[in-house]
Specification:
Blueprint lengths: L3 E7 L1 H6 L1 H11 L3 E7 L2 H9 L5 E4 L12 E15 L27 E5 L4 H11 L9 E6 L2 H9 L5 E4 H9 L3 E3 L7 E9 L7 H12 L22
Parallel strand pairs: 1-2, 1-3, 5-6
Antiparallel strand pairs: 3-9, 4-7, 4-8, 4-9
Length: about 240
Amino acid sequence: MKRGTLLLGASQTVGTYVMPHLIGQFWQAYPQVSVQLLVQSTRRIARKLASGELDLAIVGGEVPAELQSSIAVVPYACDEYVLVTAMSAPEGVWIQPPEKVRPVLQLSDLTQLRFITLDAQSSTRQTIDRSLQQYQINPHHFSVQIELSSIDAIKTAVGAGLGVAFLSITAVGLDLERHTLKRLPVEGLDVKRTLWLIYNPERYQSRVAQLFRDGLLQASGWLTSPHPYLEKICVQTPEE
């Protein structure tokens, strides 16, 4: 029976909504392994890896250019961002409520909605903004009503009818299934990002770290159920 300590890192959304799913499965196979999970920004996690403080991590942001030569960066999965609102879809989420809300929004409708977002410096916010710009959408034209520091706070504010938000499907998948939040489909809009498995190839890898990494990369062994809301590969966006 394998023993040891697994030192993991993750960016905010991944650490909250993806890593617990993976760690739970790993424990089913190796219950004697101790796990320490550090959840910080992609930049901070990458620095911890480069300095040898972590075994591996999964992040959603871009690894800083100055660290890419010392860190192995491998595509792990594809995360989708969806536009969500309260189930009641109150008129308050609109700056100027239309006479009739279409079941599928147009790209032009986005500038008429009240948005709730993370702060502009977060890697998640920057990823969403870059994706929207590929569709010739300027997110700076959006009406940002509230900036919050956590995904859960955004979900609560959206559920209270204060606005709409682009959130990872890993964060809202259960809410959509339970009908506590509602998805607002937007015609022609497909916002996705790659989640990256990163590790320091120069750092000694314990046997438990190797087992965890191999399971993720091969989707086999201890990993019996990949995350239900993640896709394996991101389909290229229109301008890639």
